[in-house]
Amino acid sequence: MANNTEDDIFHDIIMGEEKSQSQGYEAGFEAGKQSGYDEGYRLGWEKGSSIASEVGFYHGFIEELQIKIQDDDSKQRAFKVTETLLKLITELTLEDPTNNLLFDKLENIRAKFKQIMSLLGMKADFNTGQEKKGVSF
User: Fold this and answer.
1) pLDDT of the residue at 86
2) Domain that holds residue 44
3) Residue 132 resides in a domain
4) pLDDT reported for residue 4
5) Residue 4 neighbours by CB under 8 Å, 6+ apart
6) In this predicted structure, what is the pLDDT of residue 1?
7) What's the pLDDT score for residue 3?
8) 31 domain-assigned
9) Which residues of the chain fall below pLDDT 50?
């Protein structure tokens, strides 16, 4: 009987180590999973707000530009392109960020904006304000 008790104590020690290792693994796995969710949420929020800001800039800029050039006969070609751009912007859906068409449509919007700026001889670009300012050596 003494031998059986010694085996049980030894077995409990070994099993305690395995149990502790298993619990540590589970706790680490859950902490890593939560950290991944948090980082993914933050990255998604940053990218989403960046895209929304850019599209909002184009929309507001083009609407104001249309008001200024609508009666100028020499700028009717640019005016038609602004109408196309506004149509692209209003048809842009941001509900499914995993859809690759979203980024293709965003590139089309950027290209149309550049085309309008070129047609009018203007220089305007979306600036996120994230560029580093200061002296560069």
Assistant:
1) 94
2) 2-120
3) no
4) 65
5) none
6) 47
7) 60
8) yes
9) 1, 137
DSSP notation for the chain: -HHHHHHHHHHHHHHHHHHHHHHHHHHHHHHHHHHHHHHHHHHHHHHHHHHHHHHHHHHHHHHHHHHHHTT-GGGHHHHHHHHHHHHHHHH---S-TT-HHHHHHHHHHHHHHHHHHHHHT-------S-S--S---
| Residue 1 token pair | 């009987």
> Can you tell me the distance from the alpha carbon of 55 to that of 30, in angstroms, rounded to the nearest whole number?
37
pTM, entire model: 0.69
Distance CA 110, CA 40 (A): 26
Structure tokens at 62: 């083009």
Within a domain: residue 97?
Answer: yes
pLDDT at 130: 56
**Distance separating the N- and C-terminal Cα atoms of the chain:** 81
